[in-house]
Amino acid sequence: MKFASLMLGTCLALMASMARAEVIVDGDFSGWSFGSYGVGGSAAAVVEPAAGNPGARLRVTTATLPTDTAYATAIKTDFATNAPLAGARFTLTLGVLSGGGAFGDGQTIAFLVEQNGAVYALPVGSTSVQPRFAALPFSGTLTAGTFSRVAGSGPAQPVLDGSVATRVGFAAGNSGSLTSTQYYDNFGLQIVSPRAAAVALTEPAAAIPTLSGGALVLLSALLALAGMGWQRRQAGALRRRDTTSRHS
Prior knowledge:
Layout: H1 2-19, E1 21-26, E2 32-39, E3 42-48, E4 57-64, E5 69-81, E6 89-98, E7 108-115, E8 118-126, E9 134-141, E10 148-151, E11 166-175, E12 178-192, H2 194-201, H3 213-247
Helix pairs in contact: 1-2, 1-3
């Protein structure tokens, strides 16, 4: 029974964690909108149908003088969520390839959220120079105060309590880097709520969450396997005792 209880707790913890995670993967950029922001200079994002890793890729070109800052933006318009996001951990993954003449830190990446036409940016790191496509992860925590509004009108920071529909994306740009081109592919985003992380890392709570039909089937199968193992151990113990009795 101890083994069965452990299996039950582990299954419930994992399923509760999975139920509260948002995962987005996109490699063709067909459902996106593009724009730019900055001070001086220019930035543009253009979808190229081939030469990606594989398939389509997104070309971002910036032109910035020493006093300029320019970012191209890409928002995934075919996805929106009303899940509470405050305090959630996220990992943004991008396939990155540097264009000819790239140098230094490559392009700076920002994670974007869009609400009611307003776009908010959270800087998450730089790409460096990548001579071939490389999958680069950028991680952080969703906190309203760490975002800045970079386009549109509305509150100075996004609302992350789930009361406003939120879209996501990323920006790539430069400051004082003359002309710079980078290519992007295989956008991936995972957002895990604080509650999901807590459930996954602590012992099962007393309250058992409601499970879907598929989850119940999986749980029943695991418990059946655990019960069969317990029955085999019991039968083996009985046979050993019977053998010992005959030889006494």
